[in-house]
Structure formats: C-alpha cells, structure tokens
Amino acid sequence: MNEMKILVVEDDRSVSNLITTTLKINHYTYIAASTGNEAISLCASHHPDLILLDLGLPDIDGIEVIRTVRSWSEALIIIISARGEDSDKIMALDSGADDYLTKPFSIEELLARIRAAQRRMKYLSSGSEKTPVFVNGDLTIDYASRQVTLAGKEVRLTAIEYRLLTLLAGNVGKVLTHSYIIGRIWGGGVETDIISLRVYMTSLRKKLKAAQPGFNLIETHIGIGYQMVRVQDS
Ligand code: CA
User: How far apart, in whole angstroms, are the C-alpha atoms of residue 212 and residue 153?
Assistant: First the structure.
C-alpha cells in the first residue's frame, strides 16, 4: 500500500471513475468528492496528502476550494483543468496549487504527476528546505557561500540569476507563475515584464547547460511559468 492519501475532486463521473480506478490499481489510498463543499469537508476530516482538483465544480469554484483548504492545509494540490484555460491555471497556482494536469490526460501522465508530488512531499517532510545546502540530482546550491555547482563544476551566476535559481529550488516540484516569480525577484513596484524574465531565464539555463549539456531540471510551462523538477533519489 502506498503511504500517500489522495482526495479526488471531480464532478464528471467518467473522469472520476478513470482516476479512482487508476489509483486503486496502483495501490493508492483515496477518497472522492464530486462538489467543492464536499471536498473541503473531506479535506478537514481525512487530512489528505494530495488533492487532485477539477476546477469546474457544480457548487463553488475550484479556486475557492484551493483558497479555503490552503488556509489550514499543507496538502499538495494538482489542478485538473481543461485545455485553453491558462488564466484559470495561473490563478489556481497563485492561490496555492502546486501543479496542474490538462484534460484530456493519459493515465501515464496522471501517475507521473502523482509520483512527482510524492517526491515533493518527501522532500518537504524531510525538512531539507531549511538545510544550508540544496541538492537535486547533480545540482548543488550552498546557500552560505552562494556557490552553485552542477556535476561538480562551479556555475558563476549574476545576483538575479542566483535568486531565480534559489526561488525555483526552494519551491522544487511546484509550478511558479511568471507573476509570482517577478513579484518575488523584483518586488511589486518594479516594471519587469515576462519578456525580461525570459531573458534572465535563458541566460541562467545557458550557464547551467555550459556546465552540463543535458541539464533539464528547469521546465518551461508555456504561457504559465517555470518549475524545477525533483530528481528521483537513486
Ligand atoms: Ca468539472
């Protein structure tokens, strides 16, 4: 049995059945809700580790569910949203969701996201967020000396590139939206747009790729933002 408890929130019965059957076959413990209010009450009574949340619910909006649950729960939240609703995904991520899955999705995609959430959960519970050295695969960040190494090679970053990298590292596994990143790096008052962010991100990636040509820990979510993926512990 998998140690993770999952809450499935989906009003479309065929999608809900697909998800719960997949979870059952893969030995996950789950509970299911078909409305937002039911989801909130199940979350309060069952304390799930992960919530798979459809945004379009019959009673209250999925965003409202995220905001309510986030005020007292640390559960990881993966949004399940229809294609072409980028603004909803962005709002959901900024409200505290961790990742998203776009409908229609494959079983393999669903399971991969759940495994990624499990890695993020393990990472968060191990408290490694607070350790002075961040390690993810071949990437090491020594916060005290501000030294970044990749596959043993030192990577020299500018102040902004370093802050971008540490922001992504501190939220490993979570999709960070453009506006969230801009707000955290440059603050609210500075006129910085997505194009400038893209330029900094390109130069950061270029330096990381120079140290390790196959570097792919930072994923681009087109129209949404960026995510550092957690490498599976070997
Ligand atoms: Ca729905």
Answer: 8
